[in-house]
């Protein structure tokens, strides 16, 4: 029985250390490049990340029924930070509340999102989706 207890304690420490390292990596003040996220997806599963980049492949979604009711003004787009891109899903936020204008391709934004690594087919990397929590426009350079 003592070996089982040591194994469980060792596993708990290992998981805690992994979570600490992932959290300290994402909160160290330096943004994590999308390339790094893509190379180690499982470490960022269900992590809240903030990334800046450029919108491309903007696609409005038709209204649909979500978990808490009807969803309007939803969209998906790719956010490219220069090192890679991830797909971002925005529910009820593609019409900008501050100016009542929609997002557009080529616009620079900062997105805070929850990262989901989805089940893949086993061929190639699994698909990922970042569910936007908040988004703001950045000044043009």
Word description of this protein:
The chain is α+β, with helices and mostly antiparallel strands and 141 residues long. The chain folds into 2 domains: 30 residues; 107 residues, Nucleic acid-binding proteins (OB fold (Dihydrolipoamide Acetyltransferase, E2P)), CATH 2.40.50.140. Helices cover 25% and strands 39% of the residues. It has 3 helices and 9 strands; from the N terminus they run H-H-H-E-E-E-E-E-E-E-E-E. It has a 5-stranded mixed barrel. A hairpin with a 2-residue loop joins strand 2 and strand 3. The longest helix has 25 residues. The chain is globular. The N terminus is likely disordered.
Largest sheet: 5 strands, mixed, barrel
Task: Kindly state the percentage of residues in helix.
Answer: 10-25%
How many individual helices?
3
**Strand neighbour order, sheet with most strands:** 1-4-5-9-8
**How many structural domains can be distinguished in the coordinates?**
2
Global shape:
globular
Residues in β-strands, percent:
35-45%
CATH class of the largest domain: Mainly Beta
The CATH architecture classification of the largest domain is Beta Barrel
Stretches where pLDDT is under 50 for at least 5 consecutive residues are: 1-28, 97-101
Total DSSP E strands: 9
Q: How would you name the CATH homologous superfamily of the largest domain?
A: Nucleic acid-binding proteins
Task: Find the CATH topology of the largest domain.
Answer: OB fold (Dihydrolipoamide Acetyltransferase, E2P)
Average pLDDT metric = 74
Question: How big is the Rg?
Answer: 18 Å
Question: Structural class, from secondary structure content?
Answer: alpha+beta
Query: Distance between the terminal alpha carbons, to the nearest Å?
Result: 63 Å
Run of helices and strands: HHHEEEEEEEEE
């Amino acid at each position: 029985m003592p070996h089982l207890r040591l194994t469980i304690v060792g596993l708990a420490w290992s998981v805690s250390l992994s979570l600490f390292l992932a959290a300290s990596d994402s909160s160290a003040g330096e943004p994590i490049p999308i390339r790094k996220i893509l190379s180690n997806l499982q470490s960022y599963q269900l992590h809240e990340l903030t990334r800046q980049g450029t919108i491309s492949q903007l696609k409005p979604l038709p209204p649909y029924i979500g978990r808490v009711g009807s969803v309007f003004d939803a969209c998906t787009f790719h956010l490219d930070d220069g090192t890679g891109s991830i797909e971002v899903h925005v529910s009820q936020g593609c019409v900008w509340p501050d100016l009542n204008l929609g997002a557009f391709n080529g616009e620079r934004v900062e997105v805070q999102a929850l990262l989901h690594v989805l089940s893949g087919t086993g061929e190639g990397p699994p698909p990922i989706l970042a569910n936007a929590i908040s988004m703001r426009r950045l000044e043009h350079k």
